[in-house]
Structure formats: structure tokens, C-alpha cells
């Protein structure tokens, strides 16, 4: 198995020293939350360690870090929206059927994993999957809504189910990136 290249400690140390404060402030302004900014700044440098960039000059370095920061901010906001939707749905349930804090954490993490899986699907595949699984729509209605034949809906759903199986295997630790 080929090994993943890692950045030399000196390169990452220089990148961290030169740009951490700037990156942290950028994230703090975008997120309006110091702890989230610190967490995301840390995550960015972990990614840099895993996939070292070949960058010349401060402008390229900041551009690279800002690009990663934008993606992580979008992911962060999506996660927050998902959590808020879950908490609102939970608040509407009677206290007697509320899940424990541990169950809540597991459910939220599972929602994030499913959301990430759906985000990796092509748009039509995602739409067909959501219409079938969440809304219980029959293939015929999905085909009409998407403007495709029922056979194509079946293909879309098969593709989505393959992704679900891969996600399940990934969650079970059977797949290694």
C-alpha cells in the first residue's frame, strides 16, 4: 500500500507561524465564534499535514489556506443547519420520547454522515433518493417530477443505494481511505 506524503515539520511549522493568526482571525470573523474558529484553523493545518501543498510565496499560501477555510466554513454551516433542524424536530416531541444525550449525539453524527453521503451524489440521484426514501414517492411520480423514465429512476436509486452501502462499510470501519 503506498504511503500518503506528509509535509515536513519545518514546512508546516513555517506555514503555521506565518499564517495561523491571520487564518484564525479570518475564521473568527466568518463564523462569529472564537472556539469554532480555533477548531477549524486546527483542522486546516491537520489537512495541510496530510496533503502538503507545493506553494511559492505568501499570496499562494494564504490563497490555499483561505480555499480550505471556505470549504470548511460551508461544511460547518451545513452541519449547524442540520443540527438546528434536528433540534427543532426533537423539541416538537413529547418529553417521554426524547432520546438520551448519548443517543442524540449518535443521531446527529449519523445525520452528518448521511448528509455528506447525499452531498457526494449527483443532483438527480440525490433528488430521486430523497423523493423515494423521505417522501415515499413511487417511481412513476419521481420520474414525472425529474422528467425521466422510470427505468432511469431505478438506476438513480441503485446508484444511491451503492453509496449507502459504501457509507455503511465506511462507518463500520471496513473501508480505509
UniProtKB/TrEMBL annotation:
Belongs to the sigma-70 factor family. ECF subfamily. This is Sigma-70 family RNA polymerase sigma factor. Residues 112-164 form the RNA polymerase sigma factor 70 region 4 type domain. Keywords: Sigma factor, Transcription, Transcription regulation. The keyword Manganese does not apply. InterPro entries: RNA_pol_sigma-70-like, RNA_pol_sigma-70_dom, RNA_pol_sigma70_r2, RNA_pol_sigma70_r4_t2, RNA_pol_sigma_r2, RNA_pol_sigma_r3/r4-like, WH-like_DNA-bd_sf. SUPFAM superfamilies: Sigma2 domain of RNA polymerase sigma factors, Sigma3 and sigma4 domains of RNA polymerase sigma factors. The keyword Ligase does not apply. Residues 15-81 form the RNA polymerase sigma-70 region domain.
Amino acid at each position: 500500500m503506498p504511503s500518503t506524503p506528509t509535509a515536513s515539520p519545518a514546512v508546516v511549522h513555517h506555514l503555521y507561524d506565518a499564517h495561523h493568526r491571520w487564518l484564525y482571525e479570518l475564521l473568527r470573523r466568518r463564523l462569529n465564534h472564537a472556539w469554532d474558529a480555533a477548531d477549524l484553523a486546527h483542522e486546516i493545518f491537520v489537512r495541510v499535514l496530510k496533503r502538503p501543498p507545493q506553494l511559492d510565496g505568501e499570496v499562494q499560501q494564504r490563497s490555499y489556506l483561505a480555499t480550505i477555510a471556505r470549504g470548511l466554513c460551508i461544511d460547518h454551516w451545513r452541519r449547524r443547519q442540520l443540527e438546528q433542524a434536528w433540534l427543532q424536530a426533537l423539541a416538537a416531541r413529547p418529553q417521554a420520547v426524547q432520546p438520551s444525550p448519548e443517543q442524540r449525539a449518535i443521531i446527529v453524527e449519523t445525520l452528518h454522515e448521511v448528509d455528506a453521503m447525499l452531498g457526494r451524489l449527483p443532483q438527480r440521484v440525490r433528488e430521486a433518493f430523497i423523493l423515494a426514501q423521505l417522501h415515499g414517492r413511487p417511481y412513476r411520480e419521481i420520474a414525472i417530477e425529474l422528467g425521466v423514465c422510470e427505468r432511469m429512476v431505478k438506476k438513480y436509486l441503485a446508484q444511491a443505494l451503492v453509496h449507502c452501502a459504501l457509507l455503511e462499510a465506511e462507518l463500520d470501519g471496513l473501508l480505509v481511505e
